[in-house]
Amino acid sequence: MSNPTMEETLEDPPTSAVMLDHCNFSQVIFNSVEKFYVPGGDITCYYTLTQSFIPRRKDWIGIFRVGWKTTREYYTFMWVTVPLDLNSDSVKQQEVQFKAYYLPKDDEYYQFCYVDQDGVVRGASIPFQFRPENEEDILVVTTQGEVEEIEQHNKDLCRENQELKDSCVSLQKQNSDMQAELQKKQEELETLKGINKKLEEKVKEQKDSWETELLRLKEQNHKMSSENEKMGVRVDQLQVKLSTQEKEMEKLLQGDQEKTEQLKFLKKENDQLFISLAEQKEHQKKLEQTVEEMTLKETTAMKKHQELTDQNFDLSERLNENKIICNVLQKEKERLERENDFLKRENTRLLSYMGLDADSLPYQVPTLDEGDPGADPGLVYENPYSGIQESSAPSLHSKKCPTCRSEPDDMFERGFAPEDVQAPCLTCPVCDQIFPANEKQIFDDHVFCHSI
């Protein structure tokens, strides 16, 4: 255990728990070291700096009891003075003085050690004692044996130190590799966080767009309900059905949030996919705008359909993973056209049954034979797509029901009511596309396409 000095109360010297290579001991040479020093007096330590050694500000010289293992076991120490001109030969000879009240009081063997600011020993003196002069002859005999024992002990320590040094170098290399790997992982994590934040903003914007579209559909439904008050009980039934669909839509939106969380997890596994998905979202946005325009005007829809087909083909060349989404959107367009044809034909039949003049309405519908024996007087309800895509009326007779694949007129002539057609169907809460109940997987994929 070291004896604290005045210097130590201000600042402890730099030390190390591991001894380094013993070959460093020759970089500082101690001169004129006595075999013993008389207790009670100051002693001066003389040392020489070799050409290969450059002193630093935190270097120090300590007095160690012979047998020490680490530089933490110093008894006392003094800071060294760094020469102003290191190139001068005169500065190679240095000295430092130890005051008497800092020195050991026992007769054990001690030695000077020069320690640099890294805690590494750069030089060590021969052993000496603190004793009166009259014991010199006895000490001469004892010192020689002690020196040999110390030298052997130092060799053992140096060998152990070399092994520890090799182990330290290996651990340092391993630590360096781990630090580099950690830095790389941190950079990848920051990149993923940035991409994830952008995707979250995109999802939020798309969700706001859905809410706006939902409000628009509600307003349109309210307007159509006010214009068809004469429909009576059937209108009330449709309003109840609309309320049920809104509840289902809320459940689907909740499911959409769960799928969004799943999508975030997948995005962390493949950062390249995020870049491709960002490009695909731009194309998908154009596809959605084109689908909305198709519901307003068939001629424009066909033109947009060709553009979307070209874009989808180009997109499939760059990203095979998105082929399923493009195919689903294509099927969605075709089903919307069949559904629109079916509803327009159904609305025409219902208006004919009510005895309304189609010319008095804001749109034209094809007339049916009033004496049709297959008409059911109980089938009366509005067509929510009335007035849309008027130019496609001539081709209505070539379309089939999206559920049973039969002609709508034939179906009603056999006595089927509209409830029989819509009962086994699933309706998309975003675009109102209708799917048969036995195509539940296609319906889920279609709704998921809206979420991305």
* Percent range of helical residues: 40-55%
> What amount of the residues lies in strands?
5-15%
What kind of sheet is the major sheet? Answer: 4 strands, antiparallel
| Uncertain segments | 1-9, 135-142, 365-423
By helix and strand content, what is the structural category?
Answer: alpha+beta
Provide mean pLDDT, rounded: 76
Spatial separation of the terminal alpha carbons: 70 Å
Overall spatial form: rod-shaped
Write the element-wise H/E pattern from the N-terminal end onward: HEEEEEEEEEHHHHHHHEEH
Number of separate helices: 9
**Would you count the extended β strands for me?**
11
Supply Rg.
47 Å
Spatial arrangement of strands, main beta sheet: 5-4-7-8
